[in-house]
Fold each of these.
Amino acid sequence: MDLNGLSSDQAPPISAPLRFFLTAPLFGILAGILIFLGDADNLSSRYSLESIAITHAITIGFVSFVMLGALTQMLPVLAGISIARVGLVAKLSHLALSSGTIFMIYGLMQNVASLMLISSILLTIGFLIMILSMLVAFRNVKNITASVRAIFISLVFALIVVLMGAQLLSSYGISKLASFHFILANIHSVWAIFGFAGVLIIGVSFHILPMFYVAPRFKQFCKKRVVWLITIGLILWLVLNIFFDLYTVVAKIWIATFFWAFSTTVWKKLSARRRPISDVTVWYWRVATVFMTLGTFSWAINDFYDEKYIVMVSILIGGGFILSIMLGMLYKIVPFLVWFHLNAKGYMSIPNMNEMINKNLAKSQFLLFMISLIGFMFSYYYIEILPVFATTFILSMLILEYNIISPVLIYIRTIKTKPEFDMSAFNISVEGIE
């Protein structure tokens, strides 16, 4: 593992990212239960309240929690960006987002207007606390790397997406949908997937792949141009979607092409890594590149089918690409956090990162998750089998929660003992390179 560019003196308390990581699988479990109990016909419509509730249990409750937790740790450690009062910011944001997501899910499932309005307020507050704190912290960036630039752009997208989401959710709360509601909903979802999640994954991968997998570094064109080209494509898609809807496929193909190029590059980097030892995290990255390629081009040509297969596209991109990356990152980041923070405190006799999570359980979780994704796609045509794959999804999330808790328990047990070395006299800071 290449640890070049890490700085431990600005790292946030471990509780800041862990509270998000530990909560994320719980919302995954909840989403699985809702799918199991849900009406399959309603779930086939992207605009049904049931579909919106389940979608956001995954996108906010799982994906956003993992992303915000990762950013809480990565910005100070990799970019040298210090988030002011990060412990308090994480607590407040986590509380508002957790309660807001629960209220949203229950409000949508039961069609309770007051809960939708409350959740709109809580979710907006929760996201803004975290996003604005991070954006303000960027004022102190001294070394603007490709990763830092991509993370900043993704946060700008996130800010816009959150404001759109607030408007959309509150409109359900007052039972008055604006004339542009569904256009705004489409922009909200596309910019959330590609602008926030997609751009963030690309930016983080510039650091993650060389650091965790000792893979070759990305070429300068990829690091300096791809994020901007995708951003241009998303803006072009926005303009076409509003004013020239018949030509949106042009922008979609543009966006899909550069995500395909990135996916191909990731596959090649993983194949060329200096230590070609395969594990579950590598499997997740590899399947993610395949799902992303299939998903983006399916999204592009879906216009020719009147968006008939948009649910299938959502499974390919949202589940196959984004969720797979999130799961792979969790299996690397959580053990790393435990090792990193214990090491910084002077503990030397601790398990290495590969020993903190049971490999067989991780493989089982991966297999169950893949079965779930493929099963969800078949369920689009055979709705009676949906509960079976909802069950495998729930089991995969339960195992994931256990796998995340295991390293945390190692941390808790270890800090109750005396460290081998007193590290308080040292101030470790290695300037990032890129």
Amino acid sequence: MLEWLSANLGTIIVSVILVLVLALIVVKMVKDKRKGKSSCGCGCAGCAMRGNCHRS
């Protein structure tokens, strides 16, 4: 087991970092959604989906 762990340590570390970054992105998106922030980054005036995005 220890031999396998040492042989794959680089892959394990990179995988853990990627999972943590992904988790942080999801948490940020959930927080922004709860605050009513849009994720598209553009104005809502000309958007065809504006009625579905925000409850205004």
